[in-house]
Amino acid sequence: MDLFMKVLGEDSMKTIVIIPAHNEARKIYNVVQSVISRGYDVVVVDDGSSDATADEARRAGAVVLQHYINRGYGAALETGNAWVLQSDYDIIVHFDGDGQHNPDEIKNLVNPIVREKVDVVIGSRFIGNAQSMPILRHALIKLAIIFTWIFSGIKLSDAHNGFRAFSRRALEVIECRQDSMSYASEVIDQIAEHRLRIGEMPVTIEYTDYSKSKGEGNIKKILVGMRFIWGKVIK
């Protein structure tokens, strides 16, 4: 009976994947195609790209929303979230546009929401077989985990993973205002504030020279984190 309900739930719940993208013309076609081929709808938010990101995303079959200027990672996700909430999707997934996430793992990520165990699922690189990464980046993530725990009361194994899933109910109450990468911390605060049920699922991240070049540098990550923490202190 449980298996029957699980299968029925997966078939009846509509899932969409939001991909924020800035100058990802090299990768976005393949990323969108890989997600669509797994049976998911895709909306790409082109965040003020100066290349053919929007054209390539459309060619791959995605709905494309565009910012005329580069507003930032968080702003792109909020634009995607707002658009999705005007439609009838049940589960919303955030997925990076540089090819570092594995589309085969979307099903595992959304399964706890389908089964109504949690409202939000955050992907984790540190559950199960922990992935190797540069020492400084690993240290920064661990610091982020500590600060997230202190300020939100939520203890995670991976605080800043962009691969995450939300139930519609969760996304309807979450209100994030951070346009930058600080969105990753703010969304955890919102989950705590609204007492949403949160879980983690293991995911793998493919670190390539391309994805590393697209990411923010460690100094910038530190500055973004300091601004967010200062905002929490003076709030």
Descriptive account of the structure:
With 235 residues, the protein is an alpha/beta fold. The chain has one domain: Alpha-Beta Complex (Spore Coat Polysaccharide Biosynthesis Protein SpsA, Chain A). Helices cover 46% and strands 16% of the residues. It is built from 10 helices and 7 strands. The chain has helices at 2-12, 28-36, 53-60, 73-84, 106-114, 135-152, 168-173, 183-193, 209-214, 218-234; strands at 15-21, 41-47, 63-67, 91-94, 120-124, 164-167, 198-202. The protein has a 7-stranded mixed β-sheet with strand order 3-2-1-4-6-5-7, sandwiched between helices. Strand 2 (41-47), helix 3 (53-60) and strand 3 form a beta-alpha-beta unit. Helix 2 (28-36) packs parallel to helix 3 (53-60), helix 6 (135-152) runs parallel beside helix 8 (183-193) and helix 6 runs parallel beside helix 10. The model is unreliable at 1-8 and 228-234 (pLDDT under 50).
Summary tags:
235 residues, globular, Spore Coat Polysaccharide Biosynthesis Protein SpsA, Chain A, 46% helix, alpha/beta, disordered C terminus
Topology overview:
Blueprint (H helix, E strand, L loop, with lengths): L1 H11 L2 E7 L6 H9 L4 E7 L5 H8 L2 E5 L5 H12 L6 E4 L11 H9 L5 E5 L10 H18 L11 E4 H6 L9 H11 L4 E5 L6 H6 L3 H17 L1
Parallel strand pairs: 1-2, 1-4, 2-3, 5-7
Antiparallel strand pairs: 4-6, 5-6
Helix pairs in contact: 2-3, 6-8, 6-10
C-alpha termini separation: 49 Å
Q: Any idea what the CATH architecture is?
A: Alpha-Beta Complex
Relevant CATH superfamily: Spore Coat Polysaccharide Biosynthesis Protein SpsA, Chain A
Tell me the name of the CATH class: Alpha Beta
Helical stretch tally: 10
Gross morphology: globular
CATH topology: Spore Coat Polysaccharide Biosynthesis Protein SpsA, Chain A
Number of strands: 7
Low-confidence region ranges: 1-8, 228-234
Average pLDDT level: 84
Measured as a percent range, the helix fraction is: 40-55%
- How many discrete domains? 1
The main β sheet shows up as: 7 strands, mixed
Output the radius of gyration. Answer: 17 Å
Strand content: 15-25%
